[in-house]
Amino acid sequence: MAQGVANVWWAMFGFFTLVLVVVSAIWIYAMWRTPRQVSDEDAIRINRRWVIGGGIVLPTVSIVLLLLFGIPTGRSMLPLPVEGEQPLRVEVTGHQWWWEVRYPDDGGIVTANQLIIPAGRLIDVHVTSADVIHSFWVPRLGGKIDMVPGRTHVMRYQADQPGVFRGQCSEFCGTQHANMVLHVEALEEADFERWLAARRNFSPAAPTGEAGTVFEARCALCHSVAGVSDGNRAPDLTDLASRPYLGAGVIANDHEGLRRWLQDHKSLKSGNAMPLHDDIPGETLDGIADWLETLAP
Ligand code: CUA
């Protein structure tokens, strides 16, 4: 898909460079040559020729040529019916400032800030928003699409090769718009199936002791973890430990990063909706962090 967009871009670039060169050449010639005396009727006739040629024929031909390039590329991104293997459906919802990702056909798997897809297969991404307008954009996979509250837009993608691609919200959506990064990973089809199965069968143990009490009283109100809690206002944490970043790209998801995020997320990402739980004793926070680190299917 990105290849198609790139082709249209290069075609436009090449074509309009040609237009620029031709128009500049005519313009320079017009300035350089000695004016010739013509009658009023001749002047009108010559002007009319230039208006029709340069003002109507040339733009019409240019636009038609570009449409011939553009329309098929645009069509290839539409979720039109296909024969054979059906596209994988994923649902991505924009939030201030994170991404909710669902796989409705695969046991309702939910994750956040990461989109795992099979390489070499069509993916229909259904996007919407829970609050303001965001925009789904993974530059190396091609087209960008707005995420509008109350509407669902669909765009079709395909990653030809396995790899990691960076997605970024591309519609200004508030102070942390820049910190709305989506980690996209395309896996070999077999690895993707393994990932799906592992996610489906993953049932983490609930946290115990003081950490468990605090998790249940606070974190669980907003966050869900499969089989443990079902909050629905914040990112699902079921596979948190398998994600490369915290806070939608703000900080690396390692032992250090997780503790820093829990203690200091307001300075890492000011304005984020998570309350600052700075009254929780350090060792309880450590207990919660230790448990969160086990959340890897
Ligand atoms: Cu979401 Cu910008």
From TrEMBL:
Any one Gene Ontology molecular-function term assigned to this protein's record: oxidoreductase activity
Residues spanning the membrane: 6-29, 50-71
Chief place where the protein resides: membrane
Residue intervals of the Cytochrome oxidase subunit II copper A binding domain: 85-198
InterPro entries the UniProt entry points to: CcO_II, CcO_II-like_C, Copper_CuA, Cupredoxin, CuRO_CcO_Caa3_II, Cyt_c-like_dom, Cyt_c-like_dom_sf, Cyt_c_oxidase_su2
Pfam entry (one): COX2
Coiled coil segments of this chain: none
Domain Cytochrome c: 206-296
CDD domains according to UniProt: CuRO_CcO_Caa3_II
Subcellular location, record wording: Membrane
Domain of life per record: Bacteria
Keywords: Copper, Electron transport, Heme, Iron, Membrane, Metal-binding, Oxidoreductase, Respiratory chain, Transmembrane, Transmembrane helix, Transport
Keyword Electron transport tagged: yes
PROSITE patterns in alphabetical order: COX2, COX2_CUA, CYTC
Record's bilayer topology term: Multi-pass membrane protein
SUPFAM superfamilies: Cupredoxins, Cytochrome c
Catalytic activity as recorded in UniProt: 4 Fe(II)-[cytochrome c] + O2 + 8 H(+)(in) = 4 Fe(III)-[cytochrome c] + 2 H2O + 4 H(+)(out)
Function text: Subunits I and II form the functional core of the enzyme complex. Electrons originating in cytochrome c are transferred via heme a and Cu(A) to the binuclear center formed by heme a3 and Cu(B).
Record NCBIfam families: CoxB (TIGR02866)
Annotated family: Belongs to the cytochrome c oxidase subunit 2 family.
Identification of the protein by name: Cytochrome aa3 subunit 2
Organism per entry: Stutzerimonas azotifigens
Record gene name: coxB
